[in-house]
Design brief:
single chain, Rossmann fold, 36% helix, binds adenosine-5'-triphosphate, helicase, RNA binding
């Protein structure tokens, strides 16, 4: 006889049921983003086919050798221009423009994707007030973006100023505002700043520096989210609206901190502050993105496919070939020398995990001889760093040994090969490092030297991130053997150089 089923739950007598996996429900803007093609070469769009770009900028693009837009540019330029259709102000009954997040591979042309629409939006009329603030994590990146802004504003009357927080406040202030009787006037339309530079400047500058701010561009936005505990972004936004309070009472235009849309809030034209966020490794974690205080955001991404939504995947350049090279601590430097001297890789950007490791490796390669090498890290002064990057770009340096100081955003044309001499610990570091090659649709190689104990975790990290596949590359001992005698001499020389350096440091 079958006993009747009890409706009572017996304590401790839980049934063994397969637990249903909880499917994460993403907000619609993350779950259904605008997809950006990763294959640059197959998706080039003639510049004339992208609607809304003025003839002046089309001519400038052509004279800079740009005939086609890359996919991220073709998607983004119309989207940003659309939000400025009614001019920089939003009129009665108009909507506040939606903030924009872009997650596209390294080297996919994100810089031009914001420079073109923003410059066009400022052209009519040119009024010389800070209306664009572009924030970047390092001085080198700020210089790079500044150069692109200069190219496309040249001859338009728009002024671009860089604020890196490295000159005295008086000098930086003088580049931004000029004191005149009864107040001051702005000397910049577009400010390209490092975070430190702008925060310091904002604290001390008069309100005029931020009262007309229309676009806040944050490149490498994931770095910004990392430092959100410093509340930098909220501070900038607060300053922008604080500046309005005194100003707007006397003017027709008003700028109130965004709140619910009501009949009252729509009656006066508004000056919106639109955030444009860019990264190759933008998190798609809603909790983290929420800290950015985005307004009805739109996501443009290459990291999704229509069938899957993942929070951990990053978009890799399609033309990048990834390899890992098993090694041990003894043959690591020999493998690097083999790549340069035997396989003739040139130019090579090589990453280590610390400035001391970069310095030692540089000294070793220099002692070995036969390779034009240089180091790049915070050991160098800003001017030395600038000079080194320039020489690398000009092809005078065959091997640049660097810390992660060059891992992000730096665009050096013609880097054919990246070598991770020290394996990166985080996937984002990996994506940015290898992204210094395979840029703008050109082929590139990335090698990561892995000790036996690192292999499993590293390969798992890449699989989780959606890497299209990293291949194993074995270097046989016979290939390294001929390098050993000279290498041993170089090691001895290295020891004495380091001894000398230590002695001078402590005397
Ligand atoms: N439409 C285009 N036609 C030809 N070259 C282009 C075009 N757009 C950008 N480039 C070039 O492609 C390279 C990469 O562009 P950019 O530095 O903007 O990439 P990115 O997406 O910002 O990369 P990262 O994520 O590493 O910062 C640059 O050298 C740039 O001049």
């Amino acid at each position: 006889m079958v006993p009747p089923q009890s409706t009572l739950t017996i304590l401790g007598g839980f049934e063994k049921k397969a637990v249903q996996k909880v499917q994460r429900v993403l907000p619609q803007w993350l779950a259904q983003p605008n997809l950006v093609q990763r294959d640059i070469k197959k998706n080039l769009i003639p510049i004339g086919d992208v609607p809304g770009i003025c003839p002046k900028l089309l001519t400038k693009l052509q004279s800079n050798g740009i005939q086609h837009f890359f996919p991220v540019q073709a998607e983004l330029i119309p989207a940003v221009l659309e939000s400025a259709l009614l001019g920089l102000l939003i009129g009665r009954g108009g909507y506040r423009p939606r903030d924009i997040c872009v997650s596209a591979p390294t080297g996919s042309g994100k810089t031009l994707a914001f420079v073109i629409p923003v410059v066009q939006a400022l052209l009519e009329p040119v009024i010389c007030e800070v209306r664009v603030l572009a924030v970047l994590p390092t001085k080198e990146l700020a210089q790079q973006v500044c150069k692109v802004f200069h190219t496309y504003t040249d001859g338009t009357g728009l002024k671009v100023v860089m604020v890196a927080g490295q000159k005295s406040f008086a000098v930086e202030q003088a580049s931004l505002v000029q004191n005149i009787t009864g107040g001051c006037r702005s000397l910049a339309d577009i400010v390209v700043a490092t975070r430190a530079g702008w925060s310091i400047t904002l604290i001390k500058l008069p309100d005029s520096a931020s009262r007309q701010l229309r676009y806040l561009i944050i490149d490498e936005a994931d770095r910004m989210i990392d430092s959100m505990h410093q509340d930098w972004l909220n501070y900038v936004v607060k300053e922008v609206y604080r500046a309005q309070e005194a100003w707007s009472t006397a003017r027709f235009f008003r700028r109130a901190e965004p709140g619910p849309v009501t009949a009252a809030s729509l009656w006066q034209p508004q000056m919106p502050l639109q955030k444009l966020m860019f990264s190759a490794t933008l998190t798609q974690n809603p909790e983290k993105l929420q800290q950015l205080g985005l307004h009805q955001p739109r996501l443009f991404t290459s990291a999704h496919s229509r069938s899957s939504v993942s929070l951990t995947q990053h978009p890799f350049p399609l033309v990048l070939q990834e390899y890992y090279v098993p090694c041990n601590l003894n043959n690591k430097p020999l493998i690097l020398l083999h790549f340069l001297l035997r396989l003739k890789f040139n130019p090579v950007l090589c990453f280590t995990n610390s400035r001391e490791a970069s310095h030692r490796l540089y000294l070793l390669v220099r002692s070995y001889g036969g390779v034009a090498a240089a180091e790049f890290s915070s050991r160098l002064s800003p001017n030395e760093r600038k000079k080194t990057l320039k020489e690398f770009e000009q092809g005078k340096i065959q091997l640049l040994i660097s810390t992660d100081a060059t891992a992000r955003g730096i665009d050096v044309d013609g880097v054919k090969c990246v070598i991770n001499y020290d394996a990166p610990q985080f996937i984002r570091t990996y994506v940015h490092r290898v992204g210094r090659t395979a840029r703008a649709g050109k082929a590139g190689l990335a090698f990561t030297l892995l000790l036996g104990v690192q292999e499993r975790n590293f390969l798992q990290m890449l699989r989780d991130a959606g890497s299209p596949g990293v291949q194993k590359q074995l270097i046989r001992h016979e290939n390294l053997k001929p390098l050993i005698p000279q290498y041993e001499n170089a090691l001895e020389e290295l020891h004495s150089i380091i001894k000398e350096e230590r002695a001078t440091k402590y005397t």
